[in-house]
Amino acid sequence: MLKVTLKKIAATLGVSTATVSKALKDYPDISEKTKKKVKSLAASLNYKPNSFAQSLRNQESKIIGLIIPTIVHHFFSNIIYGVIDSASEHGYLVITLQSNESYEDEKNKINLLIEKNVDGILLSLSDKTVNYKHINRLIDDGVPVVLYDKISRSVNCSKVIINDFAAAFNATQYLIDTGCKKIAHIRGPLKPQTTIDRFMGYKKALEVNNILFDDSLVYVSDSLSFENGYNIAPKIINDHTDVDAIFSFTDLVATGVLIRFKELGILVPEQISIIGFSNWFLSKITSPTLSTVDQPGYEMGRKAFTLLYNELNQIRNGEPIKHEIVEIATKVIPRNSTKPI
Q1: What is the DSSP string of 81-100?
Q2: Within the chain, which residue ranges are assigned CATH 3.40.50.2300?
Q3: Which of 84, 156, 188, 267 is deepest in the core (most CB within 10 A)?
Q4: Closest to 169 (Cα-Cα) out of 193, 203, 192, 194
Q5: Full-model pTM
Q6: Do residues 304 and 160 lie in contact, with contact meaning Cβ atoms separated by under 8 Å?
């Protein structure tokens, strides 16, 4: 079946294509009689507007790019759902790419999205990204960028964040409130701001409660992996036989610790309490279930698209872009891997 076009409708009614286009858009200079005729025929022929042609006229592709550091993280899968749901409500297509926590991959994926003529980009920085020239260049070229989760204060753009410092402080404080006094911390490499802030929140909670910070109680996980937690667990108890709690910077690493302790016959939380971060689905089905910090990825994804959409509207209307920083609330979710207060 041949595609129904504005030209075909115009030829059938004996009017110009411009008249048909204006009638379908309810322009005031077209009579109600003509509008009714055009709309009636368009409906009977099941006419669908050519979105590609419209995007060319508007200089918009109605496509945005979404770059995540890693797909394995439950938090980022929720980000994807939030972005896609919100984007589809406004008629946008989302191209989702993964940087694999690589600075070079991140740059390459951004270039690929620009080649696809995306209207804007949502980006969570890779753990290896320490230079932001590629992002600042994008912004200087007029491409709207919204950073979410893993961000840099060196980039002047809209951002969606949580207060990682406060969230980590509250997680550590919860352990202290349950009676824990010697608390180990598993952190990631000190490159993304999120890891730094969680580490600093942990330290601050110790300070406020007059617990001396001990650098030997801090262990580095090179990746967000179950295996890292599994391998770090025996090191902690071998180094510190009296450790009574662990705050891990992600749930997956915390789960690795939990499983290894179970194999070693260490009782959780009777001997050692464990709290993670993100509130993965996994944290609800471990044995015991894992206490954690709720990090609402779906809400963050929706908000990130909203900020980008606002900037696209500002560009469309010839207005100066107003950058916003939106902070999403977090909370401690107590489960069975920690003692009750």
Answers
A1: HHHHHHHHHTT-EEEEEE-T
A2: 60-161+297-328, 164-294
A3: 188
A4: 203
A5: 0.79
A6: yes
